[in-house]
Amino acid sequence: ITVRGRAGHGSAGGVSAVEKLLVAKSAIDRLAAERAETKPGVLVNIGVVRAGLAPWVVPNRGWLAANINYDYAEAAEAEKTGRGFTGALVRERLEALLAEAAESDDWLREQRPELVWVKDVPPYRLGDGGSAEDGERLLAAARGAFRAAWGAEPEVADLFAWGDAAHLARLGGMPTVGMGAGAPGTSHTATEHNKVSNLRNTAAAAALAVLELAFPA
């Protein structure tokens, strides 16, 4: 979301893009609050906020970038209404909230915020690619391979974020599962890391799964 202000000297005044960006941000805050009620755990995150050049300059431009998650049911509902298997419902809601926020502000009513959608990466389920039978066979092979390589039972669940495995399932039409090797809880932090043993065990599990699929017992 990009907003425009009117530049000026900090001692003389202008229209601060920072203040107008906060008005635009209120639309995302409202969306996040709504989704916390209706879709708990399906989060909205503002990851970038930028405006201004120096403390003595009234900024004339500001922008923010956000990551908005949506779930499988929302994509399926959008598809039913002819808008594709996408986040169209969430996009439309934010667009409406942003329009309301702009209407509440004299400056933004005339200088409308610019909203650009960078990408839409839809979710997937095991049965989206190939047959249900093939999907279950893949999952069983992955479970057994993980158990043999790690010496422990795998945790099988939906990924809380997004992974490019969705492209294989949704566009490639093939059964797809993800087998993670990371250290949980450290993603995108200053301490993000992995362990050599994790990589070794996961590589072994992947190889064993391929063997099971190619040469079933």
Largest sheet data: 3 strands, antiparallel
Oligomer: single chain
Q: What does the overall shape look like?
A: elongated
* Whole-angstrom Rg: 23 Å
Structural classification: mainly alpha
What percentage of amino acids are in beta strands?
A: 5-15%
Give an overview of the whole structure.
The model has no long low-confidence stretch (mean pLDDT about 95). The chain has about 220 residues and is mostly helical. Strands 1-5-3 form a three-stranded antiparallel beta sheet, with helices on one face. Strands 2-4 form a two-stranded antiparallel ribbon. It contains seven helices and five strands. Helix 5 crosses helix 7. The longest helix is centred in the first third of the chain and has 22 residues, at about 15-40. It starts with a strand and ends with a helix. The chain has helices at about 15-40, 70-80, 90-105, 105-110, 130-150, 165-170, 195-215, and strands at about 1-5, 10, 45-50, 55-60, 60-70. The protein folds into two domains: about 1-110, Alpha-Beta Plaits, CATH 3.30.70.360; about 125-215, no CATH class.
